[in-house]
Amino acid sequence: MSEHLVLNARITVGRDEADAGMTPFEGVYRSILRALYEGRYVPGQRLAAPDLMREFDVGRGTIREVLQRLASTGAVTIQPHKGAQVRRLSRTEVTGVLEVVEVLLGLAARGAATAVASTAIRDGLGARYAEMCRIAAEVDFNRFLAARESYYRFLVAASDNHELRRVFPDIQVQIMRVQLRSFDRAADSTVMGDYTELHAAVLSGEPTLAEQAGRTHVRKTMDRVYALPDRAFEPDPAPLPSGDAYL
What we know:
By secondary structure, the chain is mostly helical.
């Protein structure tokens, strides 16, 4: 499973790094990713190196390396003379992320459906689905998000497709969700019917049905997101001039 999909593990930094078996770089990198996942850092927020140095008690070189790594994953942007900030997605970028997720979640559902004859897979999915149902009834949004991520992670792992797990754009998905939460949580459905249809299709053991359900599941999010006003998104960058402009 990719490093981003296992961030539910406990992460410690500073004086606890030695106990956690992580280098200062690893500790800071994982902690910032967790903060992004939990919404403590929000899209557009500036990540000032001096503040991060104080927070994590590390040197400027470590922070520089961490920010460059985060930039390479698409989590932050770094601009000359402005520093780093949490990436904020444009409408075009959100569309691109969702189009990729539609295909990948469909493939994950298809793979899980072929594996659902396994008692461990069926029981694992069932337990996570039941937990979502229980928390949804309690109307606890933050706990529901954690339960939903546990279900998705298990579904992707059950597909037993290592390349799918490697390329899944989980960081971009999380940035999109946090960015759009002030717009009626458009990318965070808490309607259990959306998950029930997906779950039932996977448990059917029919790969084609499950793949279609996975793609439909994401399209429902697409419909809500596409209806949002432009102020929900970062403006799309100006198109680069064509090569003819230099001839």
